[in-house]
Amino acid sequence: MTSGTEQTSVLITNARVLDVHTGEYLEGASILVADGVIAELGGSEVRALAESTVIDAKGRTVLPGFTDAHVHVTACTADLSAQAEWSPTYVAARTGHILRDMLHRGFTTVRDMGGADYGLADAIDEGFFLGPRLLFGGKAISQTGGHADMRHRGRIVADEHPHCPAVGVVCDGVDQIRKTAREQLRTGAHHIKLMLSGGVASPTDRVDSTQLSLDEIRAAVEEAEAANRYVAGHAYTARAINRALQCGVRSIEHGNLLDETSIELFKQHKAFYVPTLVTYQTLADEGPRHGLPADSHRKVSDVLDHGLRALELAHRGGVAILFGTDLLGGMHPHQAEEFAIRAEVQPAIDVIRSATCVAARLVGLEGRIGEIAPGAYADILMVEGDPLDDISVLARPDKHLKLVMKAGHVINRSTPSVVRDS
Fold first, then answer.
1. Residue 62: pLDDT above 90?
2. How far is CA 124 from the centre of its chain?
3. What is the C-alpha separation between 15 and 12, in angstroms, rounded?
4. Domain hosting residue 50, numbered range
5. N or C, which terminus of the chain has less Cβ within 10 Å?
6. CB neighbours of 390 closer than 8 A, spacing ≥ 6?
7. Residue 42 pairs with which residues in a beta bridge?
8. 48 and 78: one domain?
């Protein structure tokens, strides 16, 4: 099945191309795309192929497609406990709209951190859903009473059917952890997600709790490493973060309450940090309207005020930082606002790197995503304005984003002039 947006070849001319590695622009550049990858990058010497569509960028800024490294594409509501009982086909239908809108905002790759599976990834790859490249981990692994145990206190039975549209699965003990990790890896999971502390959306745990034993964490890490994959860990406090890093967890999600001891461990273990700042402000402002239960809404303030401080500590400490959002339900449209929040602490180029080349390193796609270079997938954005001078250019895709291309397919084109359509 095809979407009708394919181009066998595209030549973009008169572009101002951002090199995310150097932080410099290549002025008057031309980019030749063929068979889904960037074939050539240069100046006027780059020529169109016989079948090329030619797009004149007219000096606009061109940069690589973005990676959001913490999404829940199946999170159609902020009431995750209620969604676990919805029809899987209904959730899939709504997920299709979430995926399409993410791509239209310029996110050409996303890393799902609980809920998405191989079926969604295949549906995108085969053209049944329009969406970003989907790196899925299956369901997040939680202990009983942990962050992915969405049962309220009076409910005893948990539905552990693999196709139940929940974000996680409850496991206790090393053997259960190993089996669940192996099952997810069997389906082609790109990573394993562990719930290692309390969180906002879960009904019965404290944000400052630690979850899963050290042996359980190590078991998941061993299984992921055996499959040449890695473990990502949901963790807020320094205590939860540090025990995860010491066990070999590769990326820490959220981390709002980290401290200087955490910074040293990040660097020692060459781990990655994925803050998700936009979700807390949005949950505080809009959460109840989009289904967030009152008990969860009361926990937002526990982490809201500490996020920027944690980001600043990590940035000053030289930690590898990725772009993530973690939005739920009707709050997904705020996704690009994370750029503006990060810019309160980080230089614009570092915010852009977090969503491009740094993300590529974690997910094992260096040289394929996150840069405009020959051999990379043709994931290309064109924006009006200079994002290095004003990051809000990226925070408002509805206003500034003029072209989205994913793997050579032109998804959205508004302003640029088509010189020739062959």
1. yes
2. 16
3. 7
4. 9-64+370-420
5. N
6. none
7. 30
8. no
How do beta strands 107-112 and 133-135 pair?
parallel
- Residue 102 is assigned to a structural domain of this protein: yes
Regarding whether 247 and 133 lie in a shared domain, the answer is yes
The reply to whether 179 and 301 lie within a common domain is yes
**Do 145 and 283 belong together in one domain?**
yes
Residues 309 and 328 in one domain: yes
CB proximity list for 277: less than 8 A, separation 6 or greater: 307, 308, 311, 338, 341, 342
Biggest distance spanned by C-alpha atoms of the chain: 70
pLDDT tens for 219-230 read: 999 999 999 999
**What count of residues does the chain have?**
422
Residues 126, 229 within the same domain: yes
- Does a structural domain hold residue 2? no
CATH code for position 169: 3.20.20.140
**Predicted TM-score of the model (pTM):** 0.91
Over residues 169-224, the pLDDT tens digits come to 999 999 999 999 999 999 999 999 999 998 765 666 677 889 999 999 999 999 99
The CATH number that applies at residue 60 is 2.30.40.10
Q: Which amino acid is at 397?
A: P
Is residue 3 assigned to a domain?
Answer: no
Spatial distance between the Cα atoms of 376 and 370, rounded to a whole number of angstroms: 8
